[in-house]
Amino acid sequence: AQRRGVRVRVLVDAVGSYGLSPSFWLPITDLGGEVRSFNPVALNRFGIRDHRKLLVCDERVAFIGGFNIAAAYDGDGVTCGWSDVGLRVESRLARELAASFDAMFALADFRHKRFIRFRRTSAKKVVRHAEEQLLLSGPGWGINPIRQALHRDLVRARDVRIVVAYFLPAWRLRRDLARVIRRGGRVRLLLAGRSDVTVSQLAAHSLYQRLLRSGVEIAEYQPQVLHAKLFVVDHTVYLGSANLDPRSLAINYELMARFQDESLAMEARLLLDAVARHGKEVELHAWRKSRSLWRKLKERWAYFLLARIDPYIARWQWRALPD
Description:
By secondary structure, the chain is an alpha+beta fold.
């Protein structure tokens, strides 16, 4: 594309791409392309991450989802590669997604004078177009729009299906899921049986017994690492980069698209049915018997680390940024 005269810009998270040498980008930059690392690695702000996954072409076509780009992730998610999900967007949201990229690209070095205004306003916003919304979130002041939208939908929900890589929701979201069941609804979770982040999986396991007792159905994906982020709440579909954990819902820069579309919800449920065939059901009695004391201690420590310590460090680093 750069050889054809197209303007090419690439933005990668500095921590997530730490192992890449500068020479990796030479085929792009030697032809005039631009490459930036978001939040160059520094001890006083390493916890602030750009977790958005986005490709936009000419402000007309965009691709969103959970996909990283590397050989290890490539495959069908069953025989090889990670299991993930993405969406091609050709609606008005493509232009808004392009604008969100521009904002992040301009502020990548964390030294831009507009950074303070960005952290208080444009990092968190909702872009509405009829039956579709773009939910942009990040650290700093204000309510997280992804968490807020999910809460509003779950208040009335009867059928909830979630596939997510890292699952450690706060008490309020767990309460919302339990209330769906008390209203006579159904909640089904497909979580990682194999994970690239062991501590995250341990932390999620610390919640299983309480969730199962409340009536939540849990299955774990078996063939490969699960990395997808897809939520179907009745006829509403969420798809994008955010997990249901403290980092995605309070720290990282994330994006999710929310669609109120019955046909899209049906398509998403069919996709979830296909993926769920590779899941192993977690049964309360068997789960309870399988937990040794040592395992429970590790799970509680992992929960404390990710639900308490990591958010505390990130908040401290954010507040310590110079005004």
